[in-house]
């Protein structure tokens, strides 16, 4: 009786740990899959912080991020349905054994601000992440140790189909969001947000003190300047960075600053308070930007000039790279300097396009989805394009959920109606054969007795 009670307790604990791990890995893998570029930037931060950026090819952070998000999502779904129990629990345990000491190091030495385990959907401090990983490590140990006690929702014969479909779904989702834009936007620059409001401080709060450092070059010599001692136009811009001088309250948007490269002036307030339309072409590194759709971009600039709308290209690249871009693409639009991280946060595309009005983000497009002349047939005031794009995170999650769940329900239906019925019939037949065989000696003995 004691052993039976112990077995029940172990089974309950193992399955509770299994569902906790499943929820964590599904959520973690999903939010990374819908924002593959965001996770790429986080991996680049890790490699830079540990001095390993030069160890890997340039495509590694993106490819590695997509693969890791797929693995996490696969582990979560496998644990939820209890398919591939040995593989899923082993992978979960190995990841937690690796991540737990890593996050302890991050918590102590703080080389990166957050681990990025849940992307921008749920930002945890490094100590909060370490505490979470301690709990998940214990759950992974229990699930692995008692993996045979995990209750299956899918038969063994159908689990391969669930595994293949899970990987197909998560890879398809990642590459779709990479080609377009994330289907869910967890950043402060999502459609419908007002940038000025996002920059507003809470009343009475003490702000963080930042300083912009500009690296300029003249006669082969590079020097650092601030806005207070910014030199004349004989100096050539090389790079810029923002440093935190004093920590305080930080609003959702704290580093949005547009520096006009023609005049060197900060035009942020002029742009964000303009009641007209403004197109912002976002190219965080202009030398790495895709120029395959540059004709569409130039057409939108011509359209803006024709109808009196503002158009700026925002980049963090030095002036020589901007000049190369102009020569290569024939760009005539004005350029503004902005922080690289801010640009990466605004639009997950290089280049990407944003439409704002009075500081409110009306729409965003990836390089592959830029509106063309067939859409821009009139003034923006008369087009649906000029209205704020209506989107609902709940509806989006529902659609994605249905795309994943409906095929799985079909698999479950086949599993219940066909596979398991066949297994029951097979088991019943084997039981009958066993009973017949067990009766054969009795029949033979009866025959012998009758002959005697």
Automatic annotation (TrEMBL):
<dbReference type="GO" id="GO:0030416">
    <property type="term" value="P:methylamine metabolic process"/>
</dbReference>
<dbReference type="InterPro" id="IPR009908">
    <property type="entry name" value="Methylamine_util_MauE"/>
</dbReference>
<feature type="transmembrane region" description="Helical">
    <location>
        <begin position="88"/>
        <end position="109"/>
    </location>
</feature>
<feature type="transmembrane region" description="Helical">
    <location>
        <begin position="12"/>
        <end position="31"/>
    </location>
</feature>
<keyword id="KW-1133">Transmembrane helix</keyword>
<feature type="compositionally biased region" description="Basic and acidic residues">
    <location>
        <begin position="430"/>
        <end position="443"/>
    </location>
</feature>
<feature type="transmembrane region" description="Helical">
    <location>
        <begin position="158"/>
        <end position="176"/>
    </location>
</feature>
<dbReference type="GO" id="GO:0016020">
    <property type="term" value="C:membrane"/>
</dbReference>
<feature type="region of interest" description="Disordered">
    <location>
        <begin position="424"/>
        <end position="452"/>
    </location>
</feature>
<feature type="transmembrane region" description="Helical">
    <location>
        <begin position="129"/>
        <end position="146"/>
    </location>
</feature>
<feature type="transmembrane region" description="Helical">
    <location>
        <begin position="59"/>
        <end position="81"/>
    </location>
</feature>
<keyword id="KW-0472">Membrane</keyword>
<feature type="transmembrane region" description="Helical">
    <location>
        <begin position="397"/>
        <end position="419"/>
    </location>
</feature>
<dbReference type="Pfam" id="PF07291">
    <property type="entry name" value="MauE"/>
</dbReference>
<feature type="domain" description="Methylamine utilisation protein MauE">
    <location>
        <begin position="12"/>
        <end position="143"/>
    </location>
</feature>
<keyword id="KW-0812">Transmembrane</keyword>
<protein>
    <submittedName>
        <fullName>DoxX family protein</fullName>
    </submittedName>
</protein>
